[in-house]
Write a structure and sequence with these properties.
heterodimer, A: alpha/beta, Rossmann fold, six-stranded mixed β-sheet, 7 helices, 10 strands, globular, B: alpha+beta, six-stranded mixed barrel, 52% helix
Chain lengths: 257, 393
Amino acid sequence: MARSNFDPSIPDLAGSLRAPGVSCFEGAPAALALVGVSKAYGAGPTRVPVLHDISLNIPAGGLVAIVGPSGSGKSTLLNLIGLLDQPDSGEIRLDGQRVAFRSAAEAARLRNRMIGFVFQSFQLLPRLTAWENVALPLLYRGVPRAERRVRALAMLESVDLADRVDHRPSALSGGQCQRVALARALIGEPRLILADEPTGSLDTATGATVMDLLRDLNRRLGTTIVMVTHDPDLAARCNALIEIRDGRIRTQREEAT
Amino acid sequence: MTTNAAPTALFVEALDNLKGQGRRSLLALLGVVIGSGAIVALLNLGHMAQLETLKRFRQTGVDMLQVVAQPTGAEPVGLDLGALKAAAASEPGVVRVTPLATARLPVRAGARQIDAMVAAVPPAMAEVAGLRAATGRLLGPIDDCGAAALVGARLANDLSGPGAALAPGALITVGDYGFTVVGLLRPVPMEALSPVDYDQAVVIPLACARRVAGPDPTAALIRLRLEADPEAVGRRLTTRLSRPGLSVQVRDARAMIRAMNAQAAVHSRLLTAIGAISLLVGGIGVMNVMLMTVMERRREIGLRAAIGATPGDIRLMFLIEGVVLSLSGGALGAALGVAATAMIARMSGWTFDLALWVLPLGPGMAAVVGLIFSLYPAITASRVHPIEALRAD
């Protein structure tokens, strides 16, 4: 790839995305960078291009919203960022390191160490209790059970669910489920949280609480957060906004913090 | 196989997953249960049959020849006692010859009459066949032909009327002759080489055989020295004792044990094959359950993959689930198999005995079957793509 981080066509959000107490400057290593990434699904005559030559930088400590109409490619973009899928061309850099996608196992390892996922439908395992759900990423890091429990309990306490640790998801409200899911995304201390419509299944008030938690997390720990959302209010509460349309970055906006 | 999680942790995880679907899985496991049960039951039955075989040689021992003569025509011809003694004397391997004569005759005691085996034996037979008196006495040289008789345990019971139990001193009629019962026999286990089932027989002195059963002994038990070759002795005796109108057969204990074992082996091989086929069918059941599980838990698989489970982690988790599932079915089958042998032993009057080495074989084979038949579902699970799985709402 001939392109670099300084290519003028790459929207560089680093300069204006300042979390309090975090100093960002032009050219600082991005938490995440996409360079000339394209992705299509299908093959032959039915091949559908989804993303065209996308390049972007998401700086460490950013709180970025990705918006766009249905079918614009934003979910595909999130899957690529989340290392759940690999680009047809272009490269993805995590912490300045090119992701090689050498094997499914290696991608799983990277996801486990670097990325926390929050889904619209929570994706909690119904048979597991709240703490077991939260501890799941540590299982795939070889952490012993006793330690998994201790860390999961601490995590649940930080999302105000200390009294629900042994409840199964069916006994929790939507907001509580999403907080459990948030605790699960955080337990591995990832550099990056990817949230796909995190408030999409919640009512406005509960959604606002979850968003507050995300913002607080971004401020206090400096965790980079990228979220896909339809909700303009939610997007407005992020530091930066990337609008995708027809597989291309159409606009980007930076909010003053 | 690259795994991020510790295998022991995946094992605990698999057990937790299985808890959720116990009953349904158990139904699908029926094949494995039956297969494992059949294998355990059949191997243990084989073990018990062998014990039973040995039991039937406990009294006579394995250094014994049985000579049985059957007239080929209408003439009641028997063994020539003189020829038998001469033949035995010329065989250095022979320790002792115990001739006897048998016949089926009506036996009457009071109002009851039963067709029974009548065995005319020399006094020495008591020791050879292990006869002991429950009441009264055994036959001795004193009886010569004194019209004294012993009655077997079951026959005595059958000949007893209500309030008139057959006891020593009673008079019975055997054929056309009257005998005095001098003793009742204790139950004797049926011996393989014994031509008589003493429990259901009347025993009279051999010297009286002429009266009721015909002129000559019809059979003989011949004790050999340990080093004698039973087959060679048997062949020579057959030639020397055969005469016109008489067919003589000699059987030796070792050959009989060999034949019994060979037959048991054929049976157990056949039945083990049936067990193996059940296990195979059971394995397909396991594969079915596991494939269904994988399909139902696509989202779970996708989620696990998203948060860091490698394909190896997922494969291993489902393999463990399949093996543990089959193993539990196998253990249940083993328990049922042991219960079945206990029941069969009860019904056929055998002594129940459990060969411990048999126990792990059923569950062990079930586990192997579980492993093999879970491979495909486990690989299918490890190929589930997280995005597609998580999208399925």
